[in-house]
Design the sequence.
């Protein structure tokens, strides 16, 4: 069938809406009519080339929710009409990582960069004028219809609005989990969050929910700092040096217990600043991505060793999406998690390029594409 979707045809480039062919689902697959998709910096990394795409043309989008429209032959666990949220990292449920509760590290994720089917890097479900089109994270949520593996889909309560639900497919779980799982925030601790966009804002509310005594939000954009205060930050400052000084005044000169790096384009300098901001035995959690070929960081190895500081990467908040996405939505239903307040601007699919312009300009916490607008 035909579908419209936002595609990169060159890198560096911008997303353009074109008409695509989308295949019927095969065994282990479903076709989904999209309701909403978040506009995330990871999609922009593909457009700029910071993170090389495995396939061009590439249909973008990895944070989304919709309704199952067709189920592949012999595929269990899903039915037409089911409401689903996509997990941008697939979960097979069988590998060592899934079996030990680390679905975010599922072995299927090794194929993410191919933009093809997990099991076959030459197999695609979208095409443009007969040419295969890659799918961002295997899902391509910037398409009106998309065919995906069931390993990438999580069924949810149909009473939950899909625009709200879609945010748990990346931004919420990644930020919240960075604080709760990655940093292991405990009551009374001092936490710094560097960058409070769509990821960092959820690290703020995760740290606050975990009982942090102080959450210092760092962002050069005043609107984002103000928003962070509404999501549980106790302080908002424009740069990490000020945040570090503030953390030390709150901890008898020691520094933050944890600093979470969720800057849009992370550099080695950012990581070095974060490491210096934490106390002895403190933790630096790196969430954001940067230029993929970066190999150096501004880190004092002496400080790292003698002060026993920890640097951790955090993919999708170190979460298990099949369990954590429904849990986050239950928390929203109980009033313990803010979701709809994350949405700054709603766009039509045809306005996707403007959405990324607004993202780069710092105008949004989260921009959202709604397919029925």
Sequence:
């Amino acid at each position: 069938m035909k579908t419209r979707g936002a595609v990169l045809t060159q890198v560096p480039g911008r997303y353009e809406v074109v008409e695509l062919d989308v295949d019927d689902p095969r065994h282990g697959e479903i076709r989904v009519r999209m309701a909403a998709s978040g506009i995330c910096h990871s999609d922009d990394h593909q457009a700029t080339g910071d993170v090389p795409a495995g396939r061009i043309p590439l249909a973008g989008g990895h944070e989304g929710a919709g309704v199952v429209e067709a189920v592949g032959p012999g595929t269990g666990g899903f039915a037409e009409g089911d409401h689903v949220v996509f997990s941008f990292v697939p979960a097979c449920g069988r590998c060592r990582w899934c079996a030990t509760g680390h679905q975010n590290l599922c072995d299927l994720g090794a194929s993410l960069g191919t933009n093809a089917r997990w099991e076959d890097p030459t197999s695609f479900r979208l095409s443009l004028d007969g040419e295969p089109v890659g799918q961002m994270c295997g899902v391509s949520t910037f398409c009106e219809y998309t065919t995906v593996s069931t390993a990438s889909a999580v069924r949810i309560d149909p009473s939950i609005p899909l625009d709200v639900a879609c945010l748990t497919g990346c931004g919420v779980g990644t930020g919240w989990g960075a604080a709760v799982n990655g940093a292991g925030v405990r009551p009374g601790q001092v936490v710094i969050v560097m960058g409070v966009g769509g990821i960092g804002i959820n690290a703020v509310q995760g740290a606050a929910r975990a009982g942090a005594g102080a959450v210092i939000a760092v962002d050069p954009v005043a609107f984002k700092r103000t928003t962070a205060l509404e999501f549980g930050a106790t302080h908002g400052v424009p740069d990490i040096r000020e945040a570090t000084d503030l953390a030390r005044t709150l901890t008898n000169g020691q520094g933050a217990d944890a600093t979470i790096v969720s800057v849009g384009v992370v550099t080695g300098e950012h990581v070095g600043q974060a490491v210096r901001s934490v106390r002895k035995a403190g933790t630096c959690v790196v969430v954001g991505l940067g230029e993929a070929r970066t190999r150096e960081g501004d880190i004092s190895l002496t400080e790292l060793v003698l002060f026993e500081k920890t640097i951790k990467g955090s993919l999708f908040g170190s979460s298990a999406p099949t369990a954590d996405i429904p849990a986050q939505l239950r928390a929203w239903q109980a009033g313990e998690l803010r979701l709809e307040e994350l949405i700054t601007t709603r766009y039509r699919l045809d306005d996707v390029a403007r959405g990324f312009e607004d993202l780069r300009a710092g105008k949004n916490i989260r921009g959202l594409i709604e397919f029925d607008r």
Observations:
- Residues 5 and 143 are 4 Å apart (CA to CA).
- The two ends are 21 Å apart (CA to CA).
